[in-house]
Amino acid sequence: MSTPHTLAPAMLDEIVRRVVEIAQPERIILFGSAARGEMGPHSDVDLLVVKAGEYRKRELGWRIRQSLRGLELAFDVLLATPEELERYRDAWMLVYGPALREGRELYAA
Predict the structure, then answer these.
(1) Which range of residues forms the domain containing residue 20?
(2) Nearest to 76 by CA among 107, 45, 37
(3) pLDDT digit of tens for each residue in the chain (109 aa)?
(4) How does strand 75-80 pair with strand 45-50?
(5) 5: which strand partners?
(6) Contact (CB, 8 A) for 79 and 57
(7) What's the total number of domains in the chain?
(8) In the Cβ-directed half-sphere of 38, how many Cα atoms lie within 13 Å?
């Protein structure tokens, strides 16, 4: 049986560095098991990347995931504008609310 673990500060710094380099976001929020310190052997790293303006989410998400390759972790990257976060923060079927309430802000511009 493996014990839950957290990501090392150096790994978090590298994740932030790579995401900022590609996306220049307003915020990066770590959420899910990684934010709670409950990562298991099959856990992924959930990131909410908040970026203002108009951009192609699918393309930017792909570029972010490509930049994170080689870190030997699986990533789930969600992109949202500040307006979307505000509009949908209480929507029960979306992850924005839990990510904002329970997540850990790794970066703020």
Answers:
(1) 9-108
(2) 45
(3) 445 678 899 999 999 999 999 999 999 999 999 999 999 888 999 999 999 999 999 999 999 999 999 998 999 999 999 999 999 888 888 899 999 999 999 999 9
(4) parallel
(5) 39
(6) yes
(7) 1
(8) 6
- CATH number of the domain that 43 lies in? 3.30.460.10
Instruction: Tell the residue number behind the tokens 């511009």, with chain if given.
Output: 109
Q: Would you tell me how many other CB atoms lie within 10 Å of the CB of residue 62? A: 12
Instruction: Compute the distance between CA of residue 99 and CA of residue 90 in angstroms, rounded to an integer.
Output: 11
Q: Are 45 and 73 in contact (CB under 8 A)?
A: yes
Q: Which amino acid, one-letter code, is at 23?
A: A
Cα 102 to Cα 31, 62, 76: the distances in Å are: 7, 25, 16
For tokens 């030997």, name the residue: 72
Query: What's the pTM value of the predicted model, to 2 decimals?
Result: 0.91
